[in-house]
Amino acid sequence: MGLFLVVEDSSIVQKILRHTFKQARIDSVLFASSMAEGRALYKKHADQLVAAIVDLSLPDAPHGEMVECLLAESLPVVVLTGSADADQRKKLLAMGVADYVIKENRFSYQYAVRMLLRLERNQYLTALVVDDSDTSRRVVSHYLHLHCFKVKEVSSAEDGLKALQEDEAISLVISDYHMPGMNGFDFVQEIRHRYDKRSIAVIGLSGQGDPDISVQFIKKGANDFLQKPFLQEEFFCRVTNNIESLEQLLELKTLATKDYLTGLSNRRYFYEEGDASVARSTKALMPYTLAVLDIDRFKPLNDEFGHDAGDAVLRQFSEHLGLAFSRFIVARVGGEEFAVLMAGLEAERAYELLDEFRRFVEAQMYILPDDDYQRITVSIGVRAGVDQSIHASITDADKALYLAKENGRNMVVMYEDEA
Predict the structure, then answer these.
(1) Distance, CA of 238 to chain centre
(2) What are phi and psi of 331, to 5 degrees?
């Protein structure tokens, strides 16, 4: 997380903001009480600063000079002020402030802090603007840049589809309705044939007064619609709401596919992604190898040292496994059982990596909650893929794992076809 700057002369408002940042678990904040202090902090930390909250009226800058100073340095600014002057609000938004927040209640301060976090997250998001009008494209792109998005522009739906295919980082599409060739409705419909609403948010635009256009955009798969000309703040609100909805869906998906204790993928994810990976490997005539790993004598460890100790071992083992096989699909598929799907890896090389990991585990000291430590070993069953489902591969790898257990544990055993 980068640094945030707050320039506010009121000690009471500073206290409220400090508490608000603390509630949001943000401690990377610099506070200044005057323009002179703010400029000094900016000069010292310019490379680290992400955005700023600035009061309009400061002892040495009573007319918003601090805002102008930071905007001139291209630092995103959220104005936090007691002034509800509508003309002043419009002027500052036209100057390029990211938002204008009036000091009304605690929700105002919470909103201002959330906006700083939003600006930081937006730096890692890419938006695609699709419009045949150069003027309209420039306006939309300018607004997106003010909120720190990376922006790509194209002038047709056909080019928009190419851009989406070439850049998987695009998470927001803003498309006009009336374009030569494919119109906005068909464009959105084609996007939804290829990408669902959990991966890309789409906002439709139109300058035509037909109310049916907004309805058709939504029916074709758009998340939202804006009628041109739109207010700058309305644009920001719509974009923010849609991006945050996208992030919430992604978070829910992550929670549904992650193991709560270890942070690795869970059994459900492993089977879903594993089947897809096996299908791709088979189609491309590429090898794949599947391994099932089981911590030896885990139940006695749990019985002797307690479940907290068992959980500590599982977390540490999972961290080691995830790092050792970071480019593959790694999951916790049972209590002390794990699986790794190594697409593109021949059985011989997979065996070498797994046996190397087995030796690594054997040499480690696993720290228990009472600062004691325990050594563990792991048994591994391996199945080299031959055009079959993930379920069948795991069944065969389990058979090899059983042999490893029967023959003394702490070893890697390759499955051999019974035939």
Answers:
(1) 20
(2) -145, 155
Q: Point out which residues pair with 142 in neighbouring strands.
A: none
**Percent helix, percent strand, percent coil in the chain, to nearest 5:** 50, 20, 30
Catalytic residue, candidates 8, 120, 153, 336: 336
Name residue 172's beta-bridge partners: 127, 201
Catalytic status, residue 337:
no
Chunked mean pLDDT (size 10), the chain, 419 residues: 92 95 93 97 96 95 95 96 91 94 93 95 96 95 96 96 93 94 94 88 90 92 93 93 91 85 94 89 88 96 93 96 96 96 93 97 93 93 84 93 96 80
Give the residues across from 339 on adjacent strands: 292, 331
CB atoms inside a 10 Å sphere around CB 208: 11
As to burial, measured by CB atoms within 10 angstroms (0-12 exposed, 13-18 middle, 19+ buried), residue 278 is buried
Strand order, beta sheet including 49-54 = 29-32, 3-7, 49-54, 77-81, 99-102
